[in-house]
Design brief:
Layout: E1 48-57, E2 59-62, E3 71-75, E4 85-88, E5 91-96, E6 99-103, E7 109-112, E8 117-122, E9 127-130, E10 133-136, E11 138-143, E12 154-161, H1 162-173, H2 180-200, E13 208-209, H3 224-232, E14 236-240, E15 243-244, E16 249-250, H4 260-263, E17 290-291, E18 294-297, H5 298-311, E19 322-330, E20 336-343, E21 348-352, H6 353-360, E22 382-386, E23 389-393, E24 395-396, E25 404-405, H7 406-414, H8 419-426, E26 431-434
Parallel strand pairs: 1-13, 16-25
Antiparallel strand pairs: 1-12, 2-5, 3-4, 3-8, 5-6, 6-7, 8-11, 9-10, 11-12, 14-15, 14-26, 17-24, 18-23, 19-20, 20-21, 22-23
Helix pairs in contact: 1-2, 1-3, 2-3, 2-7, 2-8, 5-6
């Protein structure tokens, strides 16, 4: 999860090209306990993955790609009875009530009552362009869901074969001139992570986000190293105990990894490849290997943490004014695992490491995000409260610290280590297995 600049994703069930999992219906979504990766035996061929590339849009302009025919085929979900209509790009799409409003490059306008729209490019490389990103495969538009979703907004999901998707991840997650072995390590980790996300996405219209909430994806890649890395590791995943490993990764661990079960409580199982360990100085080239101090206003930070608590229905919403922050638990290599927050009335609240970082960085809807000078880049910190000022010091790394450090993979490749050695170092006990 997450990326070059990070630490480190509907009620309508849309049609997907036959997936490579034993349960093609993918009909139920459960978050009532840890989710192991898929069984190796269930992944028998390359699956199609669904990536949300647009969220809560009021309108969308789909552009023609140079060299393509300029036409797009539009239809509805399987079983909707909708015929295939062909339009001239560019295409402007909006939604009003239960209908889609479509206007194409030839000036034709149409109002279409369908639960979702399926867009497929015709001719050329079969790419559809949104802003500057070019997406292979199919784009699916469906109404946004959730209590806070504005009326008449919709999401855009790219349905794309996994191996076609991955170069677009590597291109955004890594720097362009990093070594091929770093790219290959990232390809295996990103493939493994995507397969895990697919198994927990049942019941929603997408598998992953295109942002650091999952792993960054920018559509069709142009980076030759990214394409080569994916091609040379095709179908290879990290495996442990007969399952695909949820191969989390972060920009930099700062020399000390975090346990997945501490960073993501009740989301993943406690397995050896995802336990924190000492990582040495392999990622010391990262600009966030060491960082801080960061100074924050006590009252403003208290309000931000409480707002995070309200959003996530956590008791810390009643924080009031912060008086003290202590590291109340550490993992076996000394990285903070839990924080105890005490308010001016003496009431205490416990937050897991990543919840604490996210709460300190929380931005309410409509607010501008914190500038870099005020952000916590990781939860590997020490915190002191002195009246109206909070000092965050000793910052190490960028991201959650679980699994592979991208900067560490760069350092190891620069020293001559291959991608298999890099992956064995960051996911101890895991093996590389080719599934298809």
């Amino acid at each position: 999860m997450p990326g070059r600049f990070s630490a480190l994703f509907v009620l309508l069930l849309v049609f997907v090209a036959v997936p490579a999992f034993g349960d093609p219906s993918r009909a139920t979504l459960r978050y009532d306990g840890p989710h192991p990766g898929p069984l190796l035996a269930e992944v028998t061929r390359e699956p199609t993955i669904r990536v949300r590339v647009g969220k809560r849009l009021a309108s969308l302009d789909v552009l023609a790609v140079e060299g393509a025919s300029g036409d797009v085929a539009v239809t509805g979900p399987a079983g909707s009875g909708a015929k295939v209509m062909r339009y001239r790009l560019p295409l402007r799409v909006a939604r009003r009530g239960d209908a889609w409003l479509i206007r194409d490059g030839a000036g034709r306008a149409m109002r279409w009552r369908l639960p979702a729209l399926y867009l497929t490019a015709e001719g050329g490389d079969r790419l559809l362009q949104i802003d500057t990103a070019r997406y292979p495969g199919r784009l699916v538009l469906s109404p946004s869901r959730g209590e806070t979703a504005p009326a008449d907004t919709f999401d855009v999901v790219n349905h794309v074969p996994l191996e076609t998707y991955l170069p677009g991840v590597l291109e955004r997650e890594l720097f362009p001139k990093w070594p091929l072995e770093t790219y290959k390590a990232q390809a295996v980790a990103a493939r493994s992570y995507a397969l895990w996300e697919m198994t927990i996405a049942r019941g929603r219209a997408f598998d992953l986000e295109s942002t650091t909430a999952s792993q960054v994806y920018g559509g069709k890649a142009t980076n030759a190293t990214a394409k080569t890395a994916v091609a040379e590791t095709r179908g290879v995943v990290l495996a442990y105990d007969g399952r695909v490993v949820p191969a989390f990764f972060a920009s930099s661990t700062g020399g000390a990894g975090q346990d997945a079960v501490r960073a993501f409580p009740n989301r993943v199982e406690d397995i050896a490849p995802l336990r924190g360990r000492a990582h040495g100085a392999w990622d010391q080239a990262s600009p966030r290997y060491r960082w801080g101090p960061v100074l924050r206003d006590t009252a403003a930070l208290s309000r931000r943490i409480a707002a995070w608590g309200r959003r996530h229905e956590h008791p810390v919403e009643h924080l009031g004014t912060l008086a003290r922050v202590e590291v109340s638990g550490r993992n076996r290599v000394g990285r903070p695992a839990t924080f105890m927050l005490t308010n001016t009335a003496g009431r205490r609240y416990t937050l897991a490491c990543e919840s604490f970082r996210n709460a300190c960085n929380f931005t309410r809807e409509g607010e501008l995000p914190l500038p870099d000078g005020g952000r916590l880049f990781s939860s590997h910190v020490e915190v002191s409260v002195d009246g109206g000022r909070v000092m965050v010091s000793g910052g190490r790394g960028h991201g959650h610290g679980v699994g592979m450090s991208q900067w560490g993979a760069y350092g190891m490749a620069q020293a001559g280590h291959g991608h298999a050695a890099i992956l064995r170092f960051y996911y101890p006990g895991a093996t590389l297995t080719r599934l298809y």
